[in-house]
Amino acid sequence: MGWFWGSSDDANKDALRDLDPSLRDFLKKESPVKYDTSNPPAAPQYRPQAPETNSGHPISKADENAPPEVPKASLFQDGRYAHLWKTYRPQAEVEAEGKSDQEKMMDILEGYQHRRAEIGRVALENCVMEQIEVSDCFTKGGWSAKTSMCRNENKKFERCYMMQAKFLKALGYLSTYDRPAEVDEKIQMHADTLYHRMLAQEKAIEEAKTEGRPIPAFPPLLSSRPKLGEPANEYTPARMHPIEIADLRTKVQQPLNKKLDTLEGEQRELEERAIKAEIEAGTQVAERLDVLHQQQDEARQKRREQGKETLGDKVFSIFRGK
Q1: pTM for the complete prediction?
Q2: What is the tally of structural domains in the chain?
Q3: Closest CA to 122 of 210, 184, 208
């Protein structure tokens, strides 16, 4: 059992001692490593290394608690590979530098049109159950339902689509400002929640009228709008000078006011909030275009002062009368 407990006998340290004598002689002759059974090499002694001491300046607590200097695009927010991210620039920023003024204007307008189209798509997603009911009516419905072209189911689906779109507008989905997709999903889910809450309230009111009970009171579906100078959320800037319906031209006001006069209570408030949301979205587009025009004028003025005025700048100055 010396192999287990260890032994101080040098003869027992011979690696070839248990082999056949002829095989041992062959290995001694042919092996490039020569074994010395009398004085085997001493085993290397490992000494634990002392921890390295930092002779430099001590790290302050402010440096330890400082956030990692890496962009959000990095998967390692602990600061690893920070040297590789020093020259990083978002792809959208790089692409924006190479765009012409016309392309920048088109991006703003297309972004607004995309938002309007997204409202229709999201409203359809929230009304998927109503769509299924319409489809089932045409495929599995009775004779009376098919002869009426599934009127009740279509009416229910159309109301869902219109109300969902209004809720989305009132909640700020039409805003053209960049924001994460998670925010859009929250708005979509909240709009669907408000719609079904509205249906539950309408059902409770109808039951109360049928049974002769007093109509129950419900809290308002939509929360109060933020005050002037207060942002609705971190992705929407504050409303400094909002345009109201009364500020529009008379030709535009008349159909809007006529539509509002036919509604009451929550329906009127929802319609009014949706209209104001469309006005604010249009105002945002106009403001962004105005900022872009100012930047273009400053760039032209700078090129003119440096003597690098282009032919396009001269033509633009002629048409602008400058």
Answers
A1: 0.64
A2: 1
A3: 184
